Amino acid sequence: MKILLVENNKKLALSIAKHLKAEFFTVDHAYDGLECETLAHISSYDIILLDIGLPLQDGWTTCKNMRKKGITIPVLMLTAYGEISDKVKGFECGADDYLTKPFHIEELIARIHALMRRPHPFKSPTIEYSGVAFDPAAHRVTRNGKEITLNAKEFSLLDLLLRTPEKIVTRDKIMDTVWDMNADPRSNVIDALVKQLRSKIDKGFDVELIHTIRGFGYKISNRGN
User: Fold this and answer.
1) Which strand (E) or helix (H) includes residue 79?
2) With 0-12 CB in 10 A as exposed, 13-18 as middle and 19+ as buried, what is 10?
């Protein structure tokens, strides 16, 4: 799961990101509302954590602009504004949830998981394909009933492949979705990650699901290449 954290307090942002990464999330960080709009348009995120008191453009305006542009990524507003009128304004701008500072990180993580369980136009709560059952909210994967333990990046890669079964997922798409924006696209991290995931998803099963499409990328399929 990939999160965009929009928070101009660097110390707080680093603390939140540390906890989220410990919960198997990939985290990108934006410092202002305009940067948030840009990243939400060009990158794939599962949730946006959006502060209201941002430089250049406040969170209310940023959320409203994203909704006008058709960006439907769930938005959880994080703010020191705790009045009922402020919360109502946030929801009217298109926010999905609202958490007042200061907050406990456990509550933030619980709110994120709750948002992940809500159905929205692009993702269903649970995916099943050819014996693989993938539950993003519970961070649980099984194949033919056998529990499979994945690390954060393996989980994100499997999520990406399962969203478009039988279709090729390019290396650029994998890099953009699984790694944060500071990753080096020239390295062999993608090949290594696919190898790791394949060893866990396919090892011991008669049908191989994860396939390399030379020169293009990878796909999950029960029909071979």
Assistant:
1) strand 75-79
2) exposed
Token couple for 19: 């906890």
* Torsion, CA 168, CA 117, CA 195, CA 202, rounded to 10: -90
pTM of the model as a whole: 0.62
Main-chain dihedrals φ then ψ at residue 69, nearest 5 degrees: -85, 0
Q: Which parts of the chain have pLDDT scores under 70?
A: 119-125, 137, 180-187, 224-225
Residue ranges of domains in the chain, CATH in brackets: 2-117 (3.40.50.2300), 127-220 (1.10.10.10)
The pLDDT of residue 122 is 45
DSSP letter string over 208-219? --EEEETTTEEE
Q: What is the 3-state secondary structure (H, E, C) of 137-173?
A: CCCEEEECCEEECCCHHHHHHHHHHHHCCCCCEEHHH
pLDDT tens for each residue of 123-135 = 546 788 999 999 8
Do residues 69 and 202 make contact, with C-beta atoms less than 8 angstroms apart? no
